[in-house]
Amino acid sequence: xxxISITVNGRAYQSEVEPRTLLVQYLRDELRLTGTHxxxxxxxxGACTILVDxxxxxxxxxxxxxxxxxxxxTIEGVAENGGIHPLQEGFNQEHGLQCGFCTPGxxxxxxxxxxxxxxxxxxxxxxxxxxxxxRCTGYHNIVKSIYHASRKMGKEVVND
Length: 160
Fold this sequence. Notes:
Layout: E1 2-8, E2 11-17, H1 23-30, E3 49-52, E4 55-58, E5 71-73, H2 86-93, H3 103-116, H4 122-128, H5 140-152
Parallel strand pairs: 1-5
Antiparallel strand pairs: 1-2, 3-4, 3-5
Helix pairs in contact: 2-5
């Protein structure tokens, strides 16, 4: 067993994990944060995307021991001041989800996108979401959801 110390959604955790434990397994099985989904186990679908030190990372491709000392945000930690995040609101208002399986990964990926590029074009949003698969929506409403959040956050999106 290997000791790790990480902060998840603002809360510090000290644990011992097997060296081969994937971060997604640690989050789901040890911390019971089940909003991080396991989709493909290969890093292809993006359902397990979380923020590690502000960067969108596929947690099925990272060992828990590699996250030692990191600041992690999962979908459970996205809400702000007791209310939902503008991206969560956008996905709700613009019908950016159907089954919801991909939604946590999409939202966390979009959080990094808007942090790095407050005024992305539609093409930049679509490019920024590459590696996150949705098998239900066709992406149009997901893009609209990010536009909604951008406007709500005061980050107007530029149309192509």
